[in-house]
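User: I'm curious what two different proteins look like when written out as structure tokens. Can you demonstrate?

Assistant: Sure. I'll show them one after the other, since each token string lines up with its own sequence. Here's the first protein:
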Amino acid sequence: LDSPPVTVIVEMESVRPPRVHKMTLFECCFSPYTVPEDRFVKSSSLPPEFGDSSRNAAVIYHRNGDANETSLLKKALHQQQLSDVSDGVHDPLVGRVFGAAVSGGGDDLPLERKSDGSENHGSGTASKAILKSSGDVANFFVDIVVASEQSSTNTFVKNIGKQLSRVVDSSSRSRRIEHEKWWKSFNDRSWIVVTSSDSSNQSLTEQLQLVSSRYAQTRVLHAMQSRNTWLPIKFNGMAYVANMPIWNASSIVLDGGPDHRDWGPANWWQNSRLPYYAMLMAGDIDEFDVMLKYHRQMIEISRRRSLKFFGINATFWNEVALINGAYLSGSYDHDGRNGKCENSRPPSMPAWLEGNPYLRYDFAGDAPTLEAIHLLVLDRFLYTNDQKTLKSDMNMIRMAVRFFKYMFVDSLPENQNCDMKLLRIFPTQSLESLWCGFPPTQQNCCTNDMPTLAALTSVLRRLLQLPPELVDTRDRDEWSTLFSQLPPLPTTTTLNAAYYCPAPLKNVEAPEMYAVHPYRIYTVARRLASDFDPSAPSSVDIAIKSWNTNTLAQSNTGWTQGVMNAALLGMVDEAANMVLERANNTAPADGYRYPGFPPHLQDYEPSADHYAVFNHALQLMLLQPTDIGAADDPDDVAPVAVLFPTWPCQWNVNARIHAPRGTVIMVTLEHGEVTALDVSPPAMADRIIIRKCQRLR
């Protein structure tokens, strides 16, 4: 308020000044398509819906082409022989208009347009609009609204004008109050603040301050991208690539700019899932449900694909899918990277099968077929106890399990499956790392890979543990039979032998660790609660040995999950060091200032993966579920979680964290001792195992 008056300039810049004809990564099997330019609306063309703000408002918008021009989703369905079952499939991208309107004003002097020629923009030649005060002002405000809809440009401009007028006519104070109310509620849901128990250790004090900051920054970043949407957080750049420079304007493939991302436009489940692991323990169910809504809307295309090619109502995916559930078209039968469009799909390959060998036969490890059930449905129920939502998603569960029953039981010749005692999972592959050739043989393909077996073991066990009143008897009988046919998890020590897989290693994953994360078969929490759970491991030593043996399991950047595995296994020294390393050793991506924006790493800057993994690892050090279900706990007395399963005594902590069954824990640990503990509801206090913190070596 005591600052001297200033001239106020508000600039609205176009990120797509000219239209371009380009391909995008992994979509190069289609002809180059037109990306239209951004457009400004002339001041004289603002409709009455802008009201009094029309004298000092500016509008920019972008409109995608119509279906016959740009529907990559429909082209993908045609490519994958699904056009005949695509009736009623909606493409949410074609004809979509998105943009912003800006208005400025103040108590002393309103902002007024100062034309730089951009108000006559329409050809793509101008790049910005300017609102500028006609003199120095001591007080001003700027209103900005954004919108996205499938409509004509005229309708869009009218609608955003109404939206802007409502904002301008409302009280800025009331809007501020609502804004602060929401963020206060968000911040009050959960926190983890870590400090050093030794105030004289300046280095550790600073590192742990950074740990606390990174946790809060990442949680806020996820919330900002998860309100009022059904689209999940984009792992490769998130929502923050608009200002990326164009690196190679002459390339036929998009190379930089607002519409380019390494790894292309699709969602890769291995990466896309990562921000959502931490949301349940943070109590951020509204943000978590974005991924659930997204997955639900992909189901119909997958179901139709199964019905057409297998004759069953089932669902399956591999790691990568377009937003309607179809395969990523540039990966389906082409290499798809860097504009390489050589057809790599054998003519004899069935249409339902992905062509890309990194993805082809992986339906459970890096794919959402079963892990979406494990995370989005079963974990959601574990933490919320929301029976209504679980019941509404029961058909999603049935169809996912049915695919594996069909693939490895029902589709086999009768003389192979009639007396089958143990499933033989073949053909399959272990993530992107151990491939399966085509046609699959014993010499080029995996059998009984760890990720698929871990997925089936964990998902079926947890389904059979659900309260009896929530599961149809026929479903339970079918799941029980399938569960009884599962072979044991491979536990040999040599990487290839463990999977009965002759394929050479093609990527840097650690498939053997999927029995730890994400499927939580081997965890220190399950071991500590094993008196209540006959299926729990009596030891996690074999998993720890796997972690120590495979250096890939210890990787600690981007999407790698070594730190989460260390936390789940109670490896306190390793987990603590890796959490500090993730927080301390990553500067913001080049050109970005927000400290929660990691660099490119394996994906694209700013990467969503690095701090998403960090957040969940910190949570797992503090709290882990025991995963004991109703069937093993008929008296409803078993512990639901372990507090401090992997917590170092040298780290003080004050936290509010969400545990299973709608339980909320507020706890303070100082100098290795619990000094405050509140469990809500109070009846759940006796169902939390409190483990003694462990001294770091």
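Here's a second, unrelated protein for contrast:
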Amino acid sequence: SVVAHLASLLRREKVRTTAVRALGQLVAGDPHAPFRNAALLAILGMHTVKDVELQLVVGDALATLAMSPPRQASSAPPPALPRIKPPEAPAVTGTGADATLAERTADAATACELAAGDTLLRYVLGRVLLQHVVAWAPLERQAGAAWLLALLRQAAKSGGGELAVRTAAGRIQAALVGLLADSNEATQELASKGLSALFDCCDEASRATILQELVAGLQSSRAANASASGGEMATYKELSEIATSVGQPALVYKLMECAASSAVWNTRKGVAFALAEQSRDALEPHLPSLLPTLFRYTFDPNPRVANAMRQLWAALVPDPKPALTKHLQPVLEHLCASLGDRLWRGRESACLALAELLPGRTLAELSPTLARLLTALLRVLDDVKETVRKAAEPAWRAVSSACVRLSDGGRASASDAEAVLEIALPILLDGVLLPSEEVRAVCTKQLLKLVQGSGKHVGPHTPRLVPFLIESLSSNESSALTYMQQHAPGLGVSAGTFEAARVAAARASPAHAALEQCLAIMDDAQVGATVPRLSEILVRGTGLPARCGAARVVLQLARDRQSALTPHAGKLLSVATRAILEERSAAARRAYASAAAQLARLAKPEPLGDLLRSLTQRYVLTAVTTNEQEERLTLASLVRELGRGAPDAMGGLRADWLPLAFIGRHEPRWEAERQEAGKQHEAGALASVWEEAYDEGGGNAGAAASHLQELLALLRTMVDGQSWALRRAAAAALIDLANLSSGALKKRPDAASQFELLAASLRESSRRWDDKEALLPKLNACFPPPPTPHAAPPPTESADM
């Protein structure tokens, strides 16, 4: 027979498509013919074939025969239909598909009941729903999905089967929703397109019912898949959320139809099912609301979701660039909000989308959301999930590049540059205070780029930038250098040498270059606003590079911006002096001393005189401790640097420092210096510094004579003090002073008695001092002692440490 011959042709791959169509047309001509069952079983037996394109042809054949009424009316009952065999346990369950086996068997029997004049649609729908789409074989479920899609499309086009479809709409949707969770991508997409076709078949009442059931089904994760690998409905849940977010839940059906990435839709038959124009037309009015969410989902971390959304994006937005430009603000608003999404997928996809969207944008496009973008990206750079942090890096680079480009001093307009800096710099400066080390690093790097690239436009922000850049000299220093500094003696390198290397490295850093640029563009008001933070860093700065950097900034301002710094010179000089006395690093003390020397040129005589007198007092009254020598060397170095940096100011205040320098020239060598072979008769380090200060400051016999009373008063203080070293220096200075001008000074009426009293005090056996036995003969030669009948035994007195 013809049916048997066509059925045999179904086994031949080249002609089976034509054979399927022929069988469908044959049964459509007489749906109650005796050969009907044989043809039906032959067509339905194609469910084992993997070819999706062929299954769509099978579905067309089933639709053709199922919706064709008998050509000739007959009162005779039609022949019995092949039995429907529901599986004992359906492989797919979905919304409303939890019927028992008995209920499903009863439904199958009902679907097989056929009256004269009836079409085969109820039977075909029943068989597909009860037997094929719930089968455990993946290929059979795929075939059932393709058949349902074809049946629903044909029903929507012809209108002949709409009533039967509406009647079974709930069951059809339940089956299709269950197939959305199938492990096979083609099966999923067939089901999603079937849902859209079902929506087109229904009237308004039916649509409301199935829409409510669909949204509820997608939001709950009850759909299960029979395959061992498990199913996934993420794509369709996201589509439902997109439709709901624009206030049009019904759009989920059209979105499902458009979201298809399987290769099956590129085949000749698949193209006909790929995208109905009416679906695109239905979505077009809602595109402005759909586009932001849809664009983000094209970067979803889930590959299935991303592929489906990209396909949907390509279908709805054929020209993406102008569409994104037109709707840029809603897109940026949505991405900003998504950066704070409670779901990590939302945060990650927003980061990836921003990296794609931001390059090349203008300030007018970015300014409404730039501040929120920077703040939100700093948060996700420290996200708890590693993939989100990695996705945030290209997004941060994109927004950072935009800021640098829009604030470029050579290309951007002044208004644009100032607007960008006004937004970005405060956020970045706050970002460097965040606890995350990675966030602090990216903020610092971006700040340096903005400062170096924006030129003079950064001027208004320098009061905050300069202290930050100074502190960044330490924060950007390698921790390895700090470790090596602590172990310098073990490495055979002196601490001073290592400190100098650290300071040199900091001066070669990008932060120091940016600092120099800021100093060059600051005006007087900005310099004044920076002084309080400079003072704080000088005293409490963390890290050697930062403290030395602050001292260098003060030095440069005092040298190059005298008018701006003069009102603050006295305060800064006092702060620098305090910092010198509290600083343990020799490199930092030298930097402070150089800064203080420049400040002395700007300070008024009164505060400078007060400073010198306090230094003298501190030098004389320093406690006898192991730090005595180091502190006195620091004070001596400071006086020397003040004389070098401000010779005129120091020349007018000789009475406040020259007596100390005169006596300091006679300081004895330290205990450690006495061990050096061949140098026992040379001046020690402390005496050498005082010698330089005395000579460079104009010290000579005339100057000593001019300040003789101040000298004698200071000698009396030292002789009566606790330090043996200072007594020794006072004795040597007294001998030197007595020999100046051929001994004329000790014969002056206003000084002779004081000379004698000082000599007598030094000779007292109760006063001990270094090298007393060696210097006492010289002292007696200058000031012969009066004869005494006896001498009292000397009391016990502790020596200097």
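A detail about the second structure: Residues 219-231, 261-278, 796-801 have pLDDT under 50 and may be disordered.
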